[in-house]
């Protein structure tokens, strides 16, 4: 009897020890699993950029900046176009287009050559409540900016300080500014650089329907200087812009400007003075094409709170996530005569 009691007690003690050992062995493993699940990855993006739809590592609550960039042949290649979320391309005087590059998700070190303001560009910048940066202005743009219609920095008043002249080019093709100096200028003038920028509409992953568009010719007016070309790169799944002779690239890195969306729209153009300055109607709406993923869709454009957006069947046509370029061409030749699509 004593022998049986001893055996029972031994088995009970042994069972308890095994249970204690199992519990003690399991507890550290559970703690490690909880720690690994809660620990955020350093590469995990914090937010999504409102004008590209792409994830960004930094906070996206900063203000958009719109910079006028020279497109004279003597100003090419330009600096900072690669980092722009969105670029408007319109005619200024004569047969040469001018860019307004809008920055929100990236801050390029060098931007330029910076060129003078026009009233329709100022109007377009207001759709993003952007800080407007130029070097010079037309009479009407001067009137708008001096009236405070947009916060602005002008190289006329900061030449040699915020704006620097490049020695390898001649004026007016050699004025540059850094993003750091844009922020300095904003602070000096008391402009806030914080803003909740309303997001554009973006489509989730999926196919795009329309006409195959491997090569597209765009005439702002019917001259060689005002004609630009886009070709679709199958490997990159993006469009490459060129002037017919050279691809548009970044001056510093030599990287090509790769575009996910190209919106081509027509608007009324009118020459209003003996300097060849134009009035461009950016509010009326009208016909257009949207290029995405090697496909062209016929769309209607509308001005919605200062933003020029594509519509189809009465509904907004969302952009592919990424970079966008908007070409505004004259109604003469217009979309029908000024855009050639090749499959």
UniProtKB/TrEMBL annotation:
Database matches in InterPro entries: DUF3048_C, DUF3048_N, YerB-like_sf
Its domain of life reads: Bacteria
- The protein depicted here goes by the name Lipoprotein YerB
PROSITE patterns, sorted: PROKAR_LIPOPROTEIN (PS51257)
Occurrences of domain DUF3048 (ranges): 51-192, 227-326
Gene3D superfamilies the UniProt entry points to:
YerB-like (3.50.90.10)
